[in-house]
Design goal:
Layout lengths: L1 E4 H8 L11 H8 L3 E3 L6 H5 L7 H5 L4 H17 L10 H8 L3 E3 L12 E3 L5 E2 L14 H10 L17 H5 L5 H8 L2 H11 L4 H4 L3 H9 L3
Parallel strand pairs: 1-2, 1-3, 3-4
Antiparallel strand pairs: 4-5
């Protein structure tokens, strides 16, 4: 069974609509096959706790994407009425796919690389994986990627980098350790680590009211 990030799908359906491709062709097929459709909630539990989270995302995408975002939003409104779906107040679609998937996930969001057993496919149902991350470090899907992103942040979501950009040695040393994720957690300031993990982890520990360091060690058995 495949879990689908409908925000991702809507973004790619925005242009096909303009060239008379059936706008629900892909999702109708997936729905008939038992797919779980996941939508962003209108509110964000992350933004309620961290005002900087995605604060300037529209500026990052640029004005040239504004039409596409409007079309995608219009497609989502129709899809919500067309299909039974998952939507939980305060959570994003990537939180939900992490909660409900049992095999494949349709997304192109690199955050999904934190899920060690998920088979990731794109909007064309083609597989992708850790090779999308341009790094010379020995990264693998799961805890390894989570350690990497904890240190480097996520510029798209405005989650800050916790290592200085000119630091060329620390991350290499972290990945030489037996448990890079635990090493990174112990190395970095605890307050910053908690804030980053609350925003990076899917599903977010904020939803469960759990300490994010305890939560991440529980998920990846790194304690």
């Amino acid at each position: 069974m495949i879990a689908v990030d409908m925000g991702i799908v809507s973004y790619f359906m925005a242009y096909p609509i303009q060239i008379e491709v059936p706008e629900f062709q892909l999702t109708d097929q997936l729905y008939e096959e038992g797919a779980i459709f996941c939508f962003d909630s209108p509110t964000s539990i992350r933004k309620l706790h961290y005002s900087w989270y995605k604060a300037n995302r529209s500026l990052l995408h640029g004005e040239d994407q504004s039409d596409r975002r409007r079309w995608a939003h219009a497609w989502q409104l129709k899809a919500r009425k067309r299909y039974a779906h998952k939507e939980i107040e305060g959570l994003e679609a990537d939180d939900l796919v992490a909660m409900y998937y049992d095999d494949r996930i349709l997304t192109i969001d690199k955050d999904a690389l934190q899920l060690p057993y998920a088979k990731l496919v794109d909007q064309n149902l083609q597989p992708w994986g850790i090779s999308r991350v341009k790094s010379k470090l020995p990264l693998v899907q799961g805890a390894s990627f989570r350690a990497y992103q904890l240190m480097t942040g996520d510029s798209t979501d405005e989650i800050p980098r916790l290592l200085h950009t000119k630091d060329r040695t620390t991350m290499k040393q972290v990945f030489k350790q037996e448990n890079p994720l635990l090493t990174a957690i112990e190395l970095l300031p605890a307050g910053l680590v908690r804030a980053s993990l609350n925003c990076l982890l899917t599903p977010t520990p904020l939803f469960f009211d759990k300490d994010p360091i305890e939560y991440v060690c529980e998920v990846y058995k790194c304690g």
